[in-house]
Design brief:
- There is one protein chain.
- With about 260 residues, this protein is α+β, with helices and mostly antiparallel strands.
- Helix content is about 30%, strand content about 20%.
- The relative contact order is 0.15.
């Protein structure tokens, strides 16, 4: 096995058989700046003048156009900093922010144990094979049989059946943690509202949102990527992971069911 120093130096050696030309180009960054500042017309004009191929898909272009944000400019005068001898937190001066992070795993998490058995991996597809359960059925079984914890990470969550199963688990005092993509989280809250469920009243459920990487333009404008992971974990013993969304879907999809003994 090559040492780390060998691996890092190989990247710059054009004679090395594993050499891959750098994929970063300054023109790409300038083209994105042109798109953000001058919309499609400026973007295509720059591509033509710089002789650069259109490297963004239509979906990526629309995502940038719809999510770009301008820098925040406060209309309030700056507050003078006053030294305090007490234990006041900084949110006295900056009430929008807080020194306290949202509590992580405050509902508890199963104690970790060493593995005592092999990991079993089953591949599930949608539509399912005649002798195999569907992805949704397997997910609902895992949720129904969970005794300690359920963790869901999903870019889009709108499936009312799985949501009902998760609510039932929370009513059994099973800790439920849900992480959603920030830009798609409103679909989940709309579903909950349609089901007449007040998420704040679910004692054993925690819902958080995360975003992708933030891209910073020269002008200070920004746009965020998305969290596209999808998996379901129950009791730290089984995981469903793949490209299936917790939504009413008709596309083909593949999931892997991993289960092990601890």
């Amino acid at each position: 096995m090559a040492h780390r120093s060998q691996c890092s130096s190989a990247g710059d050696n054009r004679l090395d058989p594993n050499y891959v030309p750098p994929h970063y180009r300054e023109e790409y960054r300038l083209a994105i700046d042109a798109l953000v500042e001058d919309d499609l017309e400026g973007y295509y004009e720059f591509l033509q003048s710089a002789d650069v191929v259109n490297f963004l898909s239509r979906q990526e272009i629309e995502h940038i156009r719809c999510t770009v944000k301008v820098p925040y400019q406060s209309t309030q005068p700056d507050l003078p900093y006053v030294e305090s001898g007490g234990d006041d937190s900084s949110d006295t001066y900056w009430p929008v922010h807080s020194d306290l992070d949202a509590p992580g795993l405050d509902l508890g998490w199963p104690e970790q144990h060493s593995f005592i058995g092999p990991t079993n991996v089953t591949t599930l597809v949608n539509p399912s094979e005649p002798d195999m359960p569907s992805i949704k059925v397997q997910a609902r079984r895992l949720i129904k049989n969970a005794q300690q914890v359920i963790a869901v990470v999903m870019d889009t969550f709108t499936d009312v059946d799985i949501f009902a199963d998760i609510l039932d688990a929370a009513m059994r005092n099973v800790a439920v943690y849900i992480i959603l993509d920030e830009q798609n989280a409103h679909h989940f809250t709309s579903m909950a509202s349609n089901c007449r469920v007040n998420l704040e009243n679910i004692q054993f459920m925690r819902v958080r949102t995360v975003s992708g990487v933030t891209y910073h333009c020269r002008s200070g404008k920004t746009f965020k990527g998305q969290m596209m992971d999808r998996f379901l974990l129950t009791d730290c013993r089984a995981v469903l992971s793949g490209n299936y969304r917790n939504s009413w879907r008709w596309e083909n999809s593949v999931y892997h069911h991993l289960e092990w003994k601890v």
